[in-house]
Each structure stands twice: as C-alpha cells, then as structure tokens.
Amino acid sequence: MSGAGLLPLSEAQQRLLALARPTPVVELPLGRCLGHYLARPLTAVRGQPAADLSAMDGYAIRWVDLPGPWSLAGESAAGRPFEGMLQPGQAARISTGAILPAGADTILVQEDAERDEQTLRLTGEGPPGRGAHIRCAGHDFMPGTALASAGEMIDARLIALSAMAGHGTLPVHRRIRVAIFDTGDELVEPGMALPSPAHLPASNGIMLGAMLAQLPVDTASSAIVPDRLEAVIEALSAHADADVVITTGGASVGDHDLIQPALKRLGGSVDFWRIAMRPGRPVMVARLGKSIAVGLPGNPVSAFVTAQMLVLPLLRTMLGAAVALPQPTLLPAGAPFPAVGHRQDFVRARIIGGAIHPLDNQDSGALHTLRRADALAIRPPHAAAATTGDPIACLLLS
Ligand SMILES: Nc1nc2c(c(=O)[nH]1)N[C@H]1C(S)=C(S)[C@@H](COP(=O)(O)OP(=O)(O)OC[C@H]3O[C@@H](n4cnc5c(N)ncnc54)[C@H](O)[C@@H]3O)O[C@H]1N2
Ligand code: MOO
C-alpha cells in the first residue's frame, strides 16, 4: 500500500491534541494528587525553615564564649523553643530541628562536649566556625518562592514540598473518565476457555487499562463487543458520558470493521483516519457528542504503540500536562536498522551496553517481542538504512 491518504504522525498528534480540552480545575487533598498535573503555579506560603534551627543534637552557644566552659541555661527542643536570651557564658541544650535561642550563634555538637551537672566543657575540636550546624531561616525556600510551574507532574517529591510549603490541597484538573472496549467475534475474556483455534484472548483492553493506570483516569471497561453494527452502537452509546472512548479492533477496511460506521450512525464526526506509522496505521479519531473517540487497531502491538503516541498524549493534555508527547532519547545503533518505507517505523529494540539493537520478530501481533523490548526505536519515513553507531531516537519503555 502506498502512503497516499496517510497522515504523518506529527500531524495526527497535533490534530488530536487540538481536540483536547483540559478538564475543570478542582482542589484535591495532597494525598490524592499523585500523578495529576499542577493546574496553577505553586508558590510557598511559608518559608522553610521558618526560623534559624539547629542541624545537630548538642548545645547552642555564643561563638565568642569558646572554648567555654558554660553554664547550662535551659533547653530548646523541637517544637518547644528556649524562651529567654542566652547570656555571656551560657549554653542551652538543643536538639536537631529545634529553634536557635536568641543570643546564640553556633552549635557545639554533643560529641565534642562533656556535661557535669549544670556545667558544660569542651572536650573535642569544637565547632569549625561561627554559625556552625545552623540551618538558617528560609535556606530551603522563602515565603513566596516559586516552587513549580503549571503543567508539572505531581510526584512524591512535589507532594512533600507542597506540604512543607504550607499547602494541604493542590489545584489540578479533575480525573478523566475513559471507556475502553475490545471488539471482535474472535475474542474471549482473558483466562476463559477458548472454544476453537479461531478464538484468542482479548489482551488489548486489559493492556490499555494498565497503561492508563499511571494517570488519574477512571476507566470503565465493557464486555467484549461482537462484530455487529448494533452491538458496537450500543456499546458506544452506553459510554456517552465518558470524556474519551477507546476501542480496539475493527478500525481497518475489512467487512467486519465497524467502528467507523458505528461512530457515523451515532452522529460522530471523524477527524482523521489512518496514520503513516508502522505498526498502527488504521487509527481513527472522531468527536462523538462530548467525547473524543479513538479507534485503535486490533493488532496488540499496534494498539500499544498508538496508545503510547496518541492516547497517552491526549489524556496528558486533558489533564493539563505541560509536556504531553513522549520524549525520545538518542542512542547509538548497536546493529544495522533497515531502510524505512513511507510509514514512520517503531521498531521494538533492546538496549545492550548503551546501544540499541532491533529485535527480530517485528510482527504487529508479537507481544513477546514487545515485552522483551527495552525501547521503541523511532525511524522516520523514508530513512536510509542505519549502520552501527548511527544515532537513533528511542522511546524508552519502562
Ligand atoms: N486490506 C487491508 N487489510 C488490513 C489493513 C489495510 O490497510 N488493508 N491494515 C492492516 C493493519 S496495518 C492493521 S494494524 C490491522 C488492524 O485492523 P483492525 O483494527 O481492523 O483490527 P482487527 O482486524 O479487528 O484485528 C487485527 C488483529 O488483532 C487481533 N485483535 C483484535 N482485537 C484484539 C484484542 N482486543 N486483543 C487481542 N488481539 C486482538 C485480531 O484477532 C487480529 O488478529 O488490519 C490490517 N489489515
Ligand atoms: O499498522 Mo498495522 O499496525 O501495521 O499492523
């Protein structure tokens, strides 16, 4: 088949992302923000530390009083500061994280001191300089410091930083409702008995659910939809409230490829169909009421690659991600890669000693090869054969 009528992948991505509207902004408690994207920039409402603190267990002293001895005037513990002002010749017991008493400017670590009743003596080398072992107010961040930008992914570190900066909730785009279904008379639910060699387990729906689980997405998966137009229409209608509907199979040109006819019967408008990529040519994108419908190819590897390159970017955009598209890494070819035809090629490949090697079985149904791959080597349309050492754009799979 020639490349006529096939959309370049970058154009397909642009058109798909142009359909995406970020979901409304909600404030979520920090504990539920993991995997969302910040809807607004994050600013510290408090500084950290909020006061000068001790970084060690020991004694707060005045540098000028070294080498001691000192009389013990009291204690500053974490959460219970020393109330008074340290006078000449005085020291205060202090714990890690406790506020430095007024008048003190240095911490003497307890390993360098000996205490006898109320008298403290220097036994070790003592502090290396004035201000030793003090965490100054605001040395991590000040009130008002810009901590993160809108569109950044919220990970465990950002959750911790937000808590420390005084936030209990964060503004994020609400979770997306996605309906996923497998279509095809030959399919049987995973784990169920297969009536004949003409049947096979439906692996796409369960794979897509797993791929989407990394994002704040609520998936509704329906039973396998048979190859009957009415059944496809019924399944699509049952998920009219979904933000995104993903089907796999029936996207090609065969007599039983019913996704496009079903979408049209429901009043959906097809935005594009068929992309110059391999695997993954027969992708279809349509608007269907308030939903975006994405018809992925049935071949399992085609479904995986198109989900990586189109579905995940669509969902990230709807969730407000600043970077929605996968970001390739350049690796040197560890072996030759063949010349490419008119479709952008996604080659399942292994990384060996930092170099990328194509795997042998590139059939678009070969899930074992997909599982063995560390990366998809992305080869542009019409690229000449690559030789060992040539830089290859790779999408790491992990
Ligand atoms: N004459 C043409 N034939 C085909 C074309 C074409 O352009 N002209 N395109 C080929 C390409 S490329 C692909 S990719 C496939 C995709 O077609 P469909 O999306 O219509 O998929 P099906 O025909 O329904 O299934 C293809 C293959 O995948 C298996 N399958 C389907 N669903 C699942 C599932 N949920 N889990 C696991 N496996 C599934 C199915 O049994 C078939 O073996 O079309 C080419 N043909
Ligand atoms: O595009 Mo199909 O996915 O080549 O097998």
TrEMBL record:
Keyword line: Magnesium, Metal-binding, Molybdenum, Molybdenum cofactor biosynthesis, Transferase
Top EC class per UniProt? transferase
**Which reaction(s) are listed as its catalytic activity?**
adenylyl-molybdopterin + molybdate = Mo-molybdopterin + AMP + H(+)
Q: What is its EC number?
A: 2.10.1.1
Q: Which Gene3D superfamilies does this one have? A: MoaB/Mog-like domain, MoeA, C-terminal, domain IV, Molybdopterin biosynthesis moea protein, domain 2, Molybdopterin biosynthesis moea protein, domain 3
The chain positions of domain MoaB/Mog read: 179-317
Q: Which Pfam families match?
A: MoCF_biosynth (PF00994), MoeA_C (PF03454), MoeA_N (PF03453)
Cofactor section: Mg(2+)
Biological or metabolic pathway of the protein: Cofactor biosynthesis; molybdopterin biosynthesis
The highest taxon in the source lineage is Bacteria
Query: What is the role of this chain?
Result: Catalyzes the insertion of molybdate into adenylated molybdopterin with the concomitant release of AMP.
Task: Please report which protein family the annotation says this sequence is part of.
Answer: Belongs to the MoeA family.
Name of the featured protein: Molybdopterin molybdenumtransferase
Upper lineage is: Bacteria, Pseudomonadati, Pseudomonadota, Alphaproteobacteria, Sphingomonadales
